Amino acid sequence: MEKIVILTGAGISAESGLGTFRDEGGLWAAHRIEDVATPEGFARDPKLVQNFYNMRRAQAREAEPNAAHYALAKLEREFTGEVTVVTQNVDGLHERAGSQNVMHMHGFLEGALCAGCGHRWPAPLNMKITDRCPKCKEVATRPDIVWFGEMPYDMEEIWDHLRSCDYFVSVGTSGNVYPAAAFVQDAARHGAITIELNLEPSAVVSDFAESHCGKASDIVPEWVEKMLSVRR
Ligand code: APR
Question: Which of 71, 146, 215, 220 is deepest in the core (most CB within 10 A)?
Fold first, then answer.
């Protein structure tokens, strides 16, 4: 049974109206990483951090999946082998397009996490610094998002997938953030065919055997049809 692992980044949700991070006018042009995406920033000003993710949660709820998300869900349904999406994105657009096998290595906007006891529960639209953990009652609620300096989720399982896949495909990511940017090397070392689908060549394009540039809503459905035409 053939296995495909697809790594996605902010670029796959750009055409759904969700800003990327490092493109012109991206999130990191308007917000300082140190302030809104580190545990230190959260300790310093939790209200600022919660408002940043409340804004993104509202935008993600308004957004709709695009043709690239739907194409990956179709591939999962119709491909004779196994398809796993490992996403750096915290929006739920893969699942809303119908993908079942999705791993959120950087967390999830719709999740709340107690910084005290580690309990998780569905996030309210507007998280407040006074929110109490429903389990330990502590006032230590944070978005269930992996910040810089923290360990991404499910890494053991992700490495297992990378070391046993036949295809590793990267969609809409700039290749600037590790460990995700190193996945291609690991997959290639274990014999996978590696393909980059991105608006422009990423910082790690030279690690890929194949690279196609264009908008995700164009090049992802094209690639999926090609894959399914021989393996439905
Ligand atoms: N179609 C395809 N690719 C696109 C599109 C599009 N419509 N629009 C932008 N891109 C590409 C850009 O060319 C860029 O290479 O998507 C990439 C987005 O890169 P980043 O903004 O760096 O986002 P990403 O790679 O997902 O960031 C990784 O960094 O900030 C942290 O935790 C955050 O998960 C995020 C991680």
Answer: 220
**pLDDT the model gives residue 232:** 65
Helix H or strand E segment including 44 = helix 39-44
CA 195 / ligand 1 centre spacing (Å): 16
pLDDT in tens, 55-66: 999 999 999 999
**How many other CB atoms are there within 10 angstroms of residue 199's CB atom?**
17
Q: Of ligand 1's atoms, which has the minimum distance to the CA of residue 27?
A: 21
CA–CA dist 117, 79 (Å, integer): 41
Residues 125-164 have pLDDT tens digits of 999 999 999 999 999 999 999 999 999 999 999 999 999 9
- The residue whose CB lies within 8 Å of the most ligand 1 atoms, and thus the one to mutate among 15, 22, 211, is 22
Extract the tokens encoding 70.
Answer: 């739907």
Give the ligand 1 atom nearest the CA of 21: 21
Mutate which of 72, 90, 199 for ligand 1 pocket (most atoms within 8 A of beta carbon)? 199
